[in-house]
Design goal:
This protein is an alpha+beta fold. It has 43 helices and 23 strands. Strand 22 (718-720) and strand 23 (724-727) form a beta hairpin. Helix 42 (1225-1234) packs antiparallel against helix 43 (1247-1256). The longest helix has 120 residues, at 731-850. The chain starts with 10 loop residues before the first strand and ends in a 48-residue tail after the last helix. The relative contact order is 0.05.
Length: 1304
């Protein structure tokens, strides 16, 4: 870091005791020679930080680089930058995976994450490693892809501390391979490979203070593949099982899981003969004081272990013999050894645990009791039996238990490998190494020494591999190569394994009869102290030594090194074990005794080999295997020791980063060119720094070179490769600073111009407002003087108008009343006058008709008033009387003539009336005839209207199809016949798209006819081999569909129409693409129509994305429509009468006619009828009995029943619990609490009743959701469905006017 970079406002990292590193901002420029750096912490604290001019604090990366998914992409590569980037991704973004070059850093979240499902596996399958977010599946896919591409074996090395998640990562890696390479012919191979994990975890994993499921051994699993790259088998190798855990556990730790699983199942009938009890009863399982793991069911795990044994083909008798040996180890640990004086020890023959141990292994109890307390010393001349002290006897007992368990573990692994063997030949393999990472504790012993030795070898292999990849990258890009100085840990390895090194001195001391740890340690002091810088002697201890490993200094206690390295069992005890027949029963018949004898020979020979010698040999074989493969690295990190989810302890993480080699990788990258940008990326990012003259150059690569030479003066800070630009550390940050300065200047200029424009705009608005106010004020001032007169004149006119109108209306009313009164009196008078005239005549006629003589007797007094009133009749009567008196006959003739004339008059009137009646009847008949004709005409009109309505509906449908075909016609003419018609503009094309609706599809046409016609146009372009024509056609088609979908984004029918046609068009492009996978179902005639000149895979992807976009919009519109229908259901429900079936069915018919929605109808039926039989009948009538309609809407039906049922008594509560099986407890309680009665006759549900129902439902296992799902996003997958129609057989209607199309 140069002094010129320590400027004001720059941010640096300074050490911190709590967070390891703390961010600070420089408040004053640093000058050369200053002893203090003035900074401000993020909390606002001002600080003067003392600095060494030779070691200035590291700079912080710009914000754009914070959160990068690859640590090598950081501009400043150092420990605080790496630590901060990991913390941001883990704590804030909840991302547990990060790349560091070729390393995948995996931080244990201590929480189950939904990122390992089959959908995620298929998403990463076939993808490049950098295309998607970092993931363990990405590393597995990269290994699988390189194996298939290069035919070379691969290895995935998973390492880390105990509790960092190594076992889980290795398990997910194996699961990925089993999923992506599944074989259809031998499907159980993958299951067997995965089933080996639970068994090895049961016998090789244990609870430690750092991890509840810690692997106490290293495991390398080779997954074998055939030539089709499908799994055919697997093989497993193990390294350095922690045998000491069998006989000793620290506080809060447990023995291996299998022991506790056996004890938890001791009461089962099949395990009674093992005579086991609880784990607290056995010495080997209670030493740590923690026999139970929270949240772990050992009995259930035992059942799972048995299932995996059976899946691997290991039978019951083999399993029972394994369990016998495990139980025997537990009983052996409880054998009491009593001290007899200072030099002797003994075991009681009545010790029940010794008897059970011998009974389980079929051994001689007396011999075992004797030789556990004695040992045989064989010399050349004699054999001496020497007693052992109690401590020696306890050590012998524990050594025997460790040896039995160790070889039982190896034998189980051997049987697993036999189960995973395959008959064919292995083509390639991928190895998964799940091995312990670098460890350092307060007290480090033999196991930690071996673990750290193995990690030194792995780190050396890792350094060489990284260095090789870096060199290959530079050679590929033609970058001048310079040697990179990286840490080589070969001196540490020489210190451990070279001649006269630590391991050789340890084996030499073990061969001595009286070898001791102190003697061996003194040899180390003599050989290495002050002679080897990597070996130190502690100042305050004479029983320890310190080795400077690549990760950290580790102090080892020498106590127990020789005993653990010897790992010997007395030969007499081995001879006694030979007599056991337990192992012989589960040896396969085909092996006979040869395999068993071989195992016994190995058992005896390994007792003569030291533990470190065995481990060194197996480690050498592992390194040979790894060097012959292409390695992939996964470093697991433990974020905190409390196992809290997404808690980041910076100290612990920094310690592990140093130990696992991540920081070393960063350091190697920082010494070279860690930042690498392609020319396109650089141009896109930093074009803002380029001048107009530079941008005018056509070659972007040349532009990048000119700009870099102008911006960075030192040419050693960057290199130009073939496809990338390589930058030294810090140069990207410098370019980012220049870019930020340019953006800041541009922002300042924009702000200045915008603020000036706003102020001018405000000033102009104020000026216009002032002018407007002045204008209105002056007008008001001039009008104020004449306003009063105008108002008074206008008011007078209005008053006159209303007054005159009132007077005229009043006069008119008086005249009207007077006229009506006069008419009434006049009409009354005339009526009375007429009445008076008619009445005397009627009386006179009646008198005359009865008796002519009555005239003579009339009272003169009565006649006189009548005559007075009727003078005309007086003369008539007078003459009548005279004639009657003088001549009765004359009077009769006169009267007869009078009557005759009257009769003729009446007859004429009657004849006239009859004529009128006849004429009126004829008119009536004529009118009736006209009325009937009019009714007939009206009926004909109604029929004609109905016919025309139906014809209009059909014509409207045909019109849309015709319009669509018109669009096709015009479009095809535009593409193919540009010389015949004018070009169709984009706007017109959009209008033609908008006219297409699904109602325009005629039923007698094939589905997707528009899509087939579009493909016929594509086929025509392919026939002509015209790329421009095809490109223009596809672009305009896709843009047109997008435009019409955008304009009709809420039109349900339009979206469904274009979704189906886009899908048909996509299937046609696939079916006739010429690819074999899409031609399987084609007929020979269809195969002749395949495209011959163009590959439209890019357009298929665009159409697929477009179909998914239309589908999502279609689902949104459909959800909105369904919500609208459900809203209608409530209104319809209030008017439904559930008393009678007839009215109910009519209501349903009305609902069907009104909404035409199955969901609305079913909601109504659920609300009205709770009888499932009726609902089933209704679904059957609708041809829906085979669908999932009933199961899907069953919760809705039960919710409707719950609203209608009685909710008072205990029987009601029981009935609710039995009936509502599709509703969760939360849903039922929510409905009962939300229920509101609709009248006063029903009461609300009481809280006691709700609690009663809730108590009855407590034992039910429900899906964790509050109410029914309202939204659910489905994964969209469009299956390929080939079209059965041959293109040459598709009939294009003549109304489409596409006669110019040529069939090819």
């Amino acid at each position: 870091l140069s002094v010129g970079q320590i400027l004001n406002y720059n941010r640096v990292w300074i050490p911190d005791n709590e967070e390891v590193w703390q961010s600070a901002e420089i408040t004053k420029n640093y000058k050369a020679g200053d002893s203090f750096l003035h900074v401000q912490l993020e909390d606002g604290t001002e600080l003067s930080y003392p600095v060494d001019p030779a070691a200035l604090p590291p700079l912080r990366n710009p914000d754009i680089l914070v959160g990068e998914n690859d640590l090598t992409a950081l501009s400043y590569l150092h420990e605080p930058a790496v630590l901060h980037n990991l913390k941001i991704r883990f704590v804030e973004s909840k991302l547990i995976y990060t790349y560091s070059g070729i390393i995948l850093v995996a931080i244990n979240p201590y929480k189950q994450l939904p990122i390992y499902g089959d959908a995620i596996i298929h998403a990463y399958s076939g993808q490049n490693m950098g295309d998607m977010d970092p993931h363990i599946f990405a590393v597995a896919e990269e290994a699988y892809k390189q194996m298939a591409r290069n035919n070379k074996n691969q290895s995935i090395i998973v390492s880390g501390e105990s509790g960092a998640g190594k076992t889980v990562s290795a398990r997910y890696t194996m699961r990925y391979f089993a999923t992506v390479s599944k074989s259809s012919s031998n499907a159980d191979v993958e299951d067997k490979v995965l089933a080996s994990n639970p068994i090895t975890e049961a016998v090789g994993n244990a609870k430690t203070t750092r991890n509840d499921n810690s692997s106490r051994f290293g495991k390398y699993t080779e997954i074998s593949f055939d030539q089709s790259y499908q799994i055919i088998g697997a093989n497993m190798r193990t390294y350095l099982l922690e045998k000491s855990r069998v006989v000793f556990q620290s506080e809060n730790e447990r023995n291996y899981h299998i022991f506790y699983q056996l004890c938890a199942s001791a009461m089962q009938p099949e395990y009674e003969h093992l005579k086991l009890g609880s784990a607290e009863e056995f010495h080997y399982t209670r030493m740590g004081g923690s026999t139970v793991i929270e949240g772990v069911d050992d009995r259930a795990n035992m059942v799972e272990t048995q299932k995996t044994f059976a899946l691997l083909g290991l039978k019951k008798d083999f399993q029972m013999d394994v369990f016998k040996m495990l139980a025997a180890i537990l009983h052996l640990g409880n054998v009491e050894i009593a001290a007899v004086g200072d030099e002797r020890s003994s075991i009681s023959m009545e010790d029940k645990h010794l008897s059970i141990f011998c009974e389980l292994l079929d051994l001689n109890c007396d011999k075992m009791a004797r030789w556990l307390c004695h040992r045989k010393i064989v010399t050349t001349s004699e054999t001496v039996v020497k007693p052992m002290t109690r401590a020696q006897a306890v050590n012998a007992r524990d050594a025997l238990a460790k040896k039995i368990y160790s070889h039982l573990f190896d034998f189980i692994v051997e049987r697993i490998n036999q189960a995973l063997q395959f008959p064919g030949k292995q083509h390639t393999f991928i190895g998964v190494l799940d091995i312990y990472g670098f460890e350092t504790f307060d007290v480090n012993s033999f196991e930690q020494f071996c673990i750290n030795y193995a990690n030194e070898k792995l780190q050396q292999q890792f350094n060489l591999h990284v260095f090789k990849l870096e060199q290959e990258e530079y050679m590929k890009e033609d970058i001048p190569w310079t040697l990179i100085d990286f840490y080589d840990n070969q001196p540490v390895i020489d210190l451990i394994e070279a001649k006269m090194g630590i391991l050789e001195l340890l084996d030499e001391e073990c061969l001595l009869p009286h070898g001791k740890d102190e003697n061996w340690l003194q040899k180390l002091y003599n050989n290495f102290v002050n002679k080897n810088a990597l070996f130190e002697k502690p100042r305050m201890s004479n029983t320890s030594f310190i080795i400077q490993h690549f990760a950290d200094k580790v102090e080892y206690k020498c106590e127990g090194f020789l005993e653990k390295n010897r790992d010997t069992v007395h030969e007499v005890l081995i001879e006694i074990l030979k007599e056991s027949k337990v192992c012989d029963k589960h040896v396969q018949p085909k092996l006979n005794r040869s395999r068993f004898d071989f195992l016994l020979k190995c058992f005896i020979s390994t007792t003569l080999m030291s533990g470190i010698f065995q481990f060194r040999n197996s480690l050498s074989l592992l390194m040979v295997t790894l060097n012959a493969t292409t390695p992939h690295y996964v470093r697991c990190i433990k974020p905190n020791d409390e196992k809290l989810p997404f808690e980041f302890d910076s100290k612990r993480v920094a310690q592990q980063l140093r130990a696992c080699g991540v920081l070393e990788t960063i350091r190697i990258s920082a010494q070279s060119y860690p930042s690498r940008w392609t020319y396109i990326e650089f141009f896109s990012r930093y074009s803002i720094l380029m001048t107009q003259q530079e941008l005018s150059i056509n070659d972007k690569k040349q532009i990048c070179k000119i700009v870099l030479q102008r911006l960075i003066q030192d040419p050693n800070q960057y290199q130009f490769g073939r496809t990338k630009i390589f930058f030294r550390a810090g140069q990207v940050a410098y370019l980012e600073k220049l870019r930020s300065d340019r953006l800041r200047q541009a922002c300042t200029l924009l702000q200045r111009r915008v603020r000036g424009w706003l102020q001018r705009r405000r000033f102009l608005a104020l000026r216009r407002a002032a002018l407007t106010v002045q204008q209105y004020y002056r007008g008001q001032l001039y009008r104020r003087l004449g306003a009063a007169n105008l108002k008074e004149t206008w008011a007078a006119i209005v008053i006159q108008k209303y007054c005159r109108g009132y007077l005229v209306r009043r006069l008119c009313q008086l005249i009207h009343v007077a006229a009506v009164t006069i008419q009434a009196y006049t009409r009354g008078f005339l009526a009375r006058k007429k009445y008076r005239k008619v009445q005397p005549i009627k009386h006179l006629i009646s008198v005359t008709g009865n008796n002519l003589c009555s005239v003579k007797k009339m009272n003169t007094i009565a006649i006189i008033p009548i005559l007075y009133l009727f003078p005309v009749w007086f003369s008539y009567l007078l003459s009548f009387c005279i004639c009657h008196v003088l001549s009765p006959f004359c009077f009769n003739r006169v009267l007869e003539s009078h009557f005759q004339s009257q009769k003729e008059i009446y007859e004429k009137e009657i004849e006239g009336l009859n004529f009128k009646v006849e004429h009126l009847s004829q008119d009536i008949n004529h009118l009736q005839k006209l009325f009937r004709e009019e009714n007939d005409i009206n009926d004909g009109i109604r029929l004609e209207v109905s016919r025309l309505t139906s014809e209009n509906l059909v014509r409207s449908r045909c019109r849309s199809t015709t319009q669509m075909c018109l669009w096709l016609s015009k479009y095809c003419e535009h593409v193919f016949e540009t010389s015949r018609l004018k070009q169709i503009g984009p706007c017109k094309m959009t209008l033609l798209h908008a006219d297409l609706k699904p109602r325009g599809v005629v039923v007698n046409m094939i589905p997707g006819l528009p899509a087939h016609i579009l493909f016929m146009c594509v086929r025509y372009a392919d026939y002509l081999n015209d790329a421009d024509m095809l490109k223009s056609f596809m672009n305009v088609t896709i843009d047109g569909i997008k435009q019409v979908v955008k304009e009709h984004s809420e039109d349900f029918e339009m979206l469904s129409f274009w979704l189906s046609n886009t899908y048909y068009f996509l299937n046609c492009l696939k079916q006739y693409s010429g690819e074999e996978e899409f031609m399987k179902h084609n007929t020979p005639r269809q195969n002749k129509n395949c495209l011959k000149h163009f590959d439209l895979s890019e357009y298929r992807q665009i159409l697929s994305d477009l179909a998914i976009q239309i589908y999502h919009q279609f689902i949104i519109v459909m959800e909105n429509n369904i919500q609208h229908m459900i809203g209608k259901t409530t209104a319809i429900q209030e008017h439904l009468n559930v008393a009678g079936e007839a009215h109910e069915e009519s209501s349903y018919r009305e609902a069907e006619g009104g909404t035409d929605s199955f969901l609305l109808i079913f909601i109504l039926r659920c609300s009205c009828m709770c009888d499932n039989a009726v609902n089933l009948k209704w679904l059957k009538d609708k041809n829906l009995q085979s669908s999932n309609a009933k199961e899907t809407l069953e919760p809705l039906s039960q919710a409707a029943w719950l609203l209608q049922v009685k909710k008072i008594t205990d029987d009601d509560a029981k009935e609710i619990c039995e009936h509502c099986t599709s509703l969760s407890t939360v849903q039922i309680v929510k409905i009962l609490n939300s229920y509101t009665p609709i009248d006063d006759f029903e009461k609300r549900v009481t809280p006691s009743f709700v609690r009663k129902v809730q108590a009855m439902l407590n034992n039910r296992e429900d899906v964790p959701q509050l109410m029914l799902d309202t939204k659910h996003l489905f994964q969209v997958t469009f299956p390929f469905t080939p079209s059965p129609h041959a293109l040459e057989l598709i009939q294009v209607p003549s109304s489409f006017k596409l006669g110019f199309l040529t069939r090819v």
